[in-house]
């Protein structure tokens, strides 16, 4: 199998000598793999869909029904998310213009070194261009089970979705997939396992996401416990970066362990929403996690604490929690046993089932606060208590 770091190149060139020259340059190395050479511009899009190149090289002077520069533009608007380098000659200067699908230009004659440097640079620039943007990844984490991660993650995702963010929820509990049972999805519903891991593309996403009646898309965990091992941290990286291109908000419902997969999810998160409750073991574990995060090098601002069941302090003094955390928790969600149990049993988010309930309003406020903290202004929801 091709190495994942290898760049897959598609060449669109109708001058046989030039195609042969480039073939020769590429034969001398192994970091770029030439997938195919096409001479007819009208055949390019179907091949891009099929071969999923990382980069397409197009001759600006391509003849035929579809000329070079219009082709670059077609590739850009096709939504396959692949950058184009345009080949030209000094007499026909072409400028870099990503809005017209021209991510790099190479003027003939060029050396193998020129070709390789341009490919590397365009690939890197394009990845930076598409991976940043305004998407936000929120992992809902706690060092302890049963504190409300799944409940909060699901309802938070729906609340973010209602705040006009295209939202996807990832079931990051890969072994026990809590969302599967919560949402009562059929066993044969697609899961994270159905994503082709070697060449994942945006168009594959639609087939593997569960479109929940609540209006959000959900990437389910594998249907069986032992299948969790088939997912690697590398898959996690790819999946999250792909989802970032399509969704404004990505919420991850995590399991409690600090293992490799969870660290991959946490690394990729803009914000860790860490659930705490008023009980002494949670406080103890939360402090241990804070130490671990410090050692990993996460800035304190990466974590935002959410006190769940904030109105039932039990025997614990809220001041003890604040002293342990070293700050006032950023978010609060009240307790509502009846509503939570009922809506979890029905697989319906309480933010939709009973939007007026205090717990639902809390979740909407958390969504607004998170968006505001990420610099995404949602005045209508963000204007609540802080
Ligand atoms: N704010 C809340 N009020 C009342 N019950 C809650 C609340 N949050 C969670 N629960 C209940 O706590 C239990 C554990 O919640 P869950 O979301 O499955 O936790 P986790 O994913 O952390 O294991 C569930 O029975 C859920 O109904
Ligand atoms: Mg859970």
Q: Can you offer a commentary on this structure?
A:
By secondary structure, the chain is an alpha/beta fold. The chain has two domains: 7-131, Rossmann fold; 136-382, Rossmann fold, CATH 3.40.50. Helix content is 41%, strand content 16%. It contains 15 helices and 13 strands. The protein has helices at residues 16-27, 44-51, 68-77, 112-131, 149-162, 178-183, 202-208, 233-246, 260-268, 280-296, 318-325, 337-346, 350-353, 358-373, 379-382, and strands spanning 7-12, 32-38, 55-59, 84-88, 104-107, 136-141, 167-171, 210-211, 217-219, 249-253, 271-276, 303-308, 331-333. The strands form two sheets. An eight-stranded mixed β-sheet has the order 8-9-7-10-6-11-12-13, sandwiched between helices. The chain has a five-stranded parallel β-sheet with strand order 2-1-3-4-5, sandwiched between helices. Strand 11 (271-276), helix 10 (280-296) and strand 12 (303-308) form a beta-alpha-beta unit. Helix 5 crosses helix 14 and helix 8 (233-246) packs parallel to helix 9. It is elongated and about 80 Å long. Mean pLDDT is 88; it is low at 377-386.
List keywords for this structure.
eight-stranded mixed β-sheet; alpha/beta; disordered C terminus; Rossmann fold; 15 helices; binds adenosine-5'-diphosphate; elongated; 16% strand; five-stranded parallel β-sheet; binds magnesium ion; 386 residues
Low-confidence stretches: 377-386
Largest sheet: number of strands, sense, barrel closure: 8 strands, mixed
Summarize model confidence as the mean pLDDT.
Answer: 88
What would CATH call the homologous superfamily of the largest domain? P-loop containing nucleotide triphosphate hydrolases
User: What is the spatial order of strands in the main beta sheet?
Assistant: 8-9-7-10-6-11-12-13
Q: Which small compounds were modeled alongside the protein?
A: adenosine-5'-diphosphate, magnesium ion
The number of domains: 2
Named at the architecture level, the CATH assignment of the largest domain is 3-Layer(aba) Sandwich
Contiguous helical run count: 15
Radius of gyration: 25 Å
Predict the CATH topology of the largest domain.
Answer: Rossmann fold
